[in-house]
């Protein structure tokens, strides 16, 4: 390199005599090609180099490219510097280098630098003029294929057709060419012509690639042509193997559509694909999720088994463990899923469970709320708290709702769990900013005190849901036991916290009127809620009218219809109340 350095110094001395504005420090340039700290003024050097005579640039490039062809660290560094400095060359320099320097890698790179100009101007002639006249057939084909891709991405389908015509006379088309050509037709929705090009491809002796089949698959999924999708998948799997692109195409389809053919195709590909792990776990995890959503539990477990077996030194992620728990629970193997969770809690090196881990298993147990399963759920919830994991309103609501309504549950245990959740909820809410807005005024009635407070909507919403779930569960639980109990204590607590809603009203009206056949109590509760500023809605009216009709109290049924429509001025929209009204009016008119 020392001799080359001296030679470049001579070049520099000559050029400095004739081109005073093109002085360049060749010693600094030389440092760019060594494993030294990055030269601070490298962009200045690149700019100075680009202004040298083209002959000087060509002479300098030769030895550099020779070193860059060596596939080692030094060669890679030289190539990186060449690429960086080429960005400073003008169009004439790029064309001269492409015509003169016999290095296809550099020619492809320089051609790529001219593509943004096409994207801006859509001038195809500019790209065609950039193809070196001395380019080999192999390079010429690569450049043409590059142009095809760019034209297609820019939506210039007419340019694609023009290039194809030129290519037929200039080069031998390859699989890449045919694939882009097929995509062009499918973008234009010309599936007949795309199929004809596919047949032409085979007749020309060019074997279709996975890209070919993926192109047709993507189109078939986009247009929901499931029979065609199955055809192209069969062709793909008969000649080659599906890849991650195939999987992503079908994953997108199965995430949007529920047709059994796309679900079956997706299952086939997921099971048959072999990918290097753990790098592809981020792809396989959503695939397993999709399989579970479509109830392909066995296929999901098959993929998960392969995922866990292929790990050696690495451990699957927490997401993978949660999916395994989900799959086992969905299959009804909650004990096995529970064992996985225990391992996560007790064995070092495994990811610690999170709320998803516990919630997934809890949901699995609640799918069949037997006495033993309810006990397991209560144990799990306590373990989750012991792990320092905070619950959320969704999990709490589902848990309370299922346990309280289960005929196997001890309502006292459910109440204790509810109190625990409320305490936990209040502890979490205490951490929220104390932003409040005006609430309604609660009048003193019966045992409920008259209080006026400001309540933050975010603070009240979660507790309102919890109380509603518990009150609803209480009514349902005792209905199954044929016992007439009403959770007045819970109602009083909810009123004191000022978290009553129309949903609370409807829970009480349904519980009293339909579950316990106590129309009078239901009417009193409606009046009481009205005094709290909470009015009835159409669902409330339906419960009252339905309950009155079931008790043969047609007078009260008509009364509540009158209140809802005439007094409140509401219009009946739901078919349930509208049909019940017509039935009552029809029967009363006959009686008259």
UniProtKB/TrEMBL annotation:
The stretches annotated as PPR repeats are 174-208, 317-351, 354-391
UniProt xrefs under InterPro entries? Mito_RNA-Proc/Resp, PPR_rpt, TPR-like_helical_dom_sf
Pfam family of this protein, just one?
PPR
Entries under PROSITE patterns matching the protein:
PPR
Q: Give the top-rank taxon of the lineage listed in the UniProt record for this protein.
A: Eukaryota
A Gene Ontology molecular function term for this protein is:
mRNA binding
Check the record and name the NCBIfam families matching this protein: PPR
- According to UniProt, the name of this protein is Pentatricopeptide repeat-containing protein
The species is Apophysomyces ossiformis
């Amino acid at each position: 390199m020392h001799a080359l350095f001296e030679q470049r110094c001579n070049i520099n001395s000559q050029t400095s005599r004739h081109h005073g504005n093109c002085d360049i420090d060749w010693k600094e340039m030389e440092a760019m090609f060594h494993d030294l700290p990055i030269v601070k003024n490298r962009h200045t050097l690149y700019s100075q180099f680009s202004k040298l005579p083209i002959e000087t640039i060509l002479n300098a490039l030769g030895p550099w490219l020779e070193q860059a062809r060596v596939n080692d660290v030094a060669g890679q560094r030289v190539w990186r510097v060449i690429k960086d400095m080429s960005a400073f060359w003008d169009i004439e320099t790029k064309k001269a280098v492409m015509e003169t320097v016999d290095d296809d890698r550099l020619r492809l790179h320089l051609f790529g630098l001219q593509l943004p100009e096409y994207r801006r101007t859509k001038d195809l002639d500019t790209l065609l003029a950039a193809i070196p006249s001395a380019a080999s057939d192999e390079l010429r084909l690569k450049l043409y294929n590059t142009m095809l891709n760019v034209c297609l991405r820019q939506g210039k389908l007419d340019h694609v057709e023009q290039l194809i015509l030129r290519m037929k006379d200039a080069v031998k088309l390859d699989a890449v060419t045919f694939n882009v050509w097929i995509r062009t037709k499918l973008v234009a929705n010309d599936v007949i012509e795309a199929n004809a090009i596919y047949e032409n491809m085979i007749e020309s002796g060019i074997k279709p690639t996975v890209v070919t089949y993926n192109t047709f698959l993507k189109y078939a999924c986009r247009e929901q042509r499931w029979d065609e999708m199955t055809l192209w998948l069969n062709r793909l799997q008969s000649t080659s193997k599906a890849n991650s692109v195939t999987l992503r195409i079908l994953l997108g389809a199965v995430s949007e559509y529920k047709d059994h053919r796309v679900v079956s195709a997706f299952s086939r590909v997921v099971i048959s694909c072999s990918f290097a792990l753990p790098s592809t776990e981020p792809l396989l995890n959503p695939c397993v999720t999709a399989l579970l959503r479509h109830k392909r539990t066995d296929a999901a477990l098959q993929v998960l088994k392969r995922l866990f077996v292929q790990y050696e030194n690495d451990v699957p992620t927490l997401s993978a463990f949660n999916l395994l728990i989900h799959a086992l629970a969905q299959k009804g193997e909650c004990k096995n899923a529970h064992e996985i969770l225990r391992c996560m809690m007790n064995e070092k090196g495994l990811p610690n469970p999170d709320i998803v881990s516990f919630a997934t298993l809890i949901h699995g147990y609640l799918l069949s709320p037997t006495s033993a399963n309810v006990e397991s759920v209560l144990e799990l919830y306590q373990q989750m708290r012991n792990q320092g994991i905070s619950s959320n309103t969704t999990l709490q609501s589902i848990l309370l709702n299922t346990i309280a309504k289960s005929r196997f549950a001890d309502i006292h245990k459910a109440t204790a769990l509810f109190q625990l959740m409320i305490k936990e909820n209040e502890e979490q809410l205490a951490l929220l900013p104390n932003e409040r807005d005006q609430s309604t005024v609660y009048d003193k009635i019966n045992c409920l005190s008259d209080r006026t407070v400001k309540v933050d909507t975010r603070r009240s919403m979660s507790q309102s849901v919890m109380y509603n779930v518990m009150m609803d569960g209480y009514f349902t639980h005792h209905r199954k036991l044929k016992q007439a109990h009403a959770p007045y204590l819970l109602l009083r607590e909810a009123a004191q916290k000022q978290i009553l809603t129309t949903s609370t009203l409807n829970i009480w009206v349904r519980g009293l009127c339909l579950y316990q056949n106590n129309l009078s109590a239901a009417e009193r509760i409606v009046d009481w809620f009205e005094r709290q500023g909470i009015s009835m809605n159409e669902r409330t009216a339906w419960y009252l009218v339905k309950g009155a009709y079931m008790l043969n109290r047609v007078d009260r049924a008509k009364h509540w219809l009158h209140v809802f429509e005439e007094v409140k001025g509401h219009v009946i929209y739901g078919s349930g109340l509208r049909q019940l009204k017509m039935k009552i009016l029809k029967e009363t008119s006959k009686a008259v």
